[in-house]
Amino acid sequence: MGIPTISRIVRDTCRALWEVLREDFIPHPTTEQWLQIADKFLESCQLPNCVGAVDGKHIRIVKPSGSGSEFYNYKKYFSIILMAIADADYRFVAVDIGADGRTNDSMAFKISAMGRLLYSKDFGLPPPRPLPDTDGPSMPFVVVGDEAFQMCENLIEPYSSRDLLRCCLLDSGPATTQRSLLRSQ
Predict the structure, then answer these.
(1) Residue-wise pLDDT tens digits, 87-145
(2) pTM beyond 0.85
(3) With the C-alpha atoms ordered 118, 24, 80, 12, is the resulting torsion angle positive or negative?
(4) How far apart are alpha carbons 62 and 75 in whole angstroms?
């Protein structure tokens, strides 16, 4: 068999596996599951009403023929983007795979099905609720992302790395700050 034939077989097999197994391994969470994820984020990260963390990862590929620079990324290699939302236990809640490598995280998320649903407020998140140990007002459930993502009601940046560093430097002595920075590397 030739390379084009094998490539088509692999691509078709992967697509069929995804379509058949997706709902078994990465089902869209129910309202009850979203609430459980939020409770876990509160317990482990002290992030109330958080239902996920989003980020993208470049997956190195061989340059597709005829693609020009479409898959060539800022890291200077050809890639596709794996965009994922993970829960507090680092398990995928939603994924999108295949945006071309030259696309930045923000755009890859915006054009993905999960991004379109989140930005249009149709992601199936529970209705807003008050933050723990408060009497209100009700706050929306959110996904956290870094500064690369366009923020909206349900997608926030919990803090900037610059503000975190300043907070560490102001609130603790030099030894504590140094240990915290070393742990984060």
Answers:
(1) 999 999 999 988 999 998 899 999 999 999 999 999 999 999 999 888 889 999 999 99
(2) no
(3) negative
(4) 14
**First-to-final CA distance of the chain:** 47
Torsion angle (degrees, nearest 10) of CA 59, 89, 145, 105: 10
Chain segment 7-45, per-residue pLDDT in tens: 889 889 988 998 888 888 888 899 999 999 999 999 998
What's the Cα-to-Cα distance from 178 to each of 45, 106, 122, 173, 183, rounded to whole Å?
21, 32, 43, 9, 9
